[in-house]
Structure formats: structure tokens, C-alpha cells
Design a protein that fits this description.
The protein has 181 residues and is mainly alpha-helical. It has a two-stranded antiparallel sheet with strand order 1-2. It is elongated and about 110 Å long.
Length: 181
């Protein structure tokens, strides 16, 4: 009997795709982005457009120029002429600038500051560890030099067989660091 390997079905592949973390995060980002876009559009239409429109018409969408006269626009469609609706472009540009500013100042900048603090902490921690390692190494070198000096041989000399049998030698046998390196 030959064992047949079943290839994963379409449903299993689709389920595996949906269960990935990236897809879920992306879906949440799209939903929050859509809600955020509605807020920004409301601010632009309810606050910014009237402020800008205080110098002309009440709504930016009504600002236009005419390429080929006479321009007659009814219900958002040109009846005659070639109108250029630059007010709606200005409104969309303001929406974009406000959205970009809010995202930058409320999300990107605080996250950059947070990551910079984390990096500084990590570097400070690594710098402290390095200083401790260097100071431990220096202390160990000093201890070695003192032990070598107590044996009566200078650093850099081998001292024969490496065993010390003087009054200052610990235990009369081979001490720590029998032969200095």
C-alpha cells in the first residue's frame, strides 16, 4: 500500500495566511486608519475650511477657475465650459498635511524618542559592563604582579619550574599563575 501525501487544501492555506500576525496587524491598522481619516476629514471640513473660507466663499470645494468660459457647474458636474476645481484639491492637501502632522507629532516623534532612550540605556549598560570588565582585568593583573613580586621573580621571567617554596608562597606549592604570561 502506497502512502499518499495530501497537499494542504485551499482552506488550510487560507487559514494559515489569516493566522499570521502581519495580516491581523494590517487589518487593525486599516480599520484605525479609516476611523482616523474620518476624524481628520471632519476637522478639515468643519474647522479648517470655514477658516480658510472666511476670506472668500464658505466652502473650499466651491473655489474654482474656468479654462473655457462660460463655466456652469451644477451638482458637482460641469454643464458648460472647463472648470478647474482647485478648492477641492486644496481641501484634500490640507487633509493630507494635517494627517501627516498628527501622525508625525503624536506617533513617529514619541516612538523615535522612546527608541533613542532605549538605545542610550543599552549603550550605557554595555559601557558600564566594559568598564567593569576592564577594571576586573586590571585588578587581576595587579594581583598577579604582587604574587610574582612576592616570589622574587620579576614579571616576564619564567622563574624556573614554576613552583615557589619561599616564606611568602601560599601552601609551598605551585601558586596561582605559576608562570606569568
Amino acid at each position: 500500500m502506497v502512502s499518499e501525501k495530501k497537499e494542504p487544501g485551499i482552506w488550510q492555506g487560507f487559514k494559515a495566511f489569516l493566522m499570521r500576525g502581519n495580516v491581523i496587524d494590517l487589518a487593525v491598522a486599516v480599520v484605525i486608519g479609516a476611523a482616523f481619516t474620518n476624524i481628520v476629514n471632519s476637522v478639515v471640513k468643519g474647522v479648517i475650511n470655514p477658516l480658510v473660507g472666511a476670506f472668500g466663499t464658505k466652502d473650499l470645494d466651491h473655489y474654482s477657475s474656468c479654462l473655457k468660459a462660460p463655466c456652469v457647474v451644477k451638482n458637482g458636474e460641469a454643464q458648460s465650459g472647463i472648470p478647474i476645481m482647485w478648492g477641492s484639491v486644496l481641501s484634500a492637501t490640507l487633509s493630507f498635511v494635517i494627517t501627516a502632522a498628527v501622525v508625525y507629532f503624536l506617533m513617529v516623534m514619541p516612538m523615535a524618542k522612546y527608541l533613542a532612550k532605549q538605545t542610550a540605556r543599552r549603550q550605557a549598560k554595555e559601557g558600564t559592563k566594559e568598564v567593569i570588565e576592564i577594571s576586573e582585568l586590571e585588578v587581576l593583573k595587579e594581583i598577579r604582579d604582587v604574587l610574582v613580586a612576592q616570589r622574587g621573580t620579576g614579571p616576564g621571567t619564567t622563574g624556573g619550574s614554576g613552583s615557589a617554596t619561599g616564606p611568602g608562597s601560599p601552601g609551598g606549592g605551585t601558586g596561582p599563575g605559576g608562570s606569568p604570561r
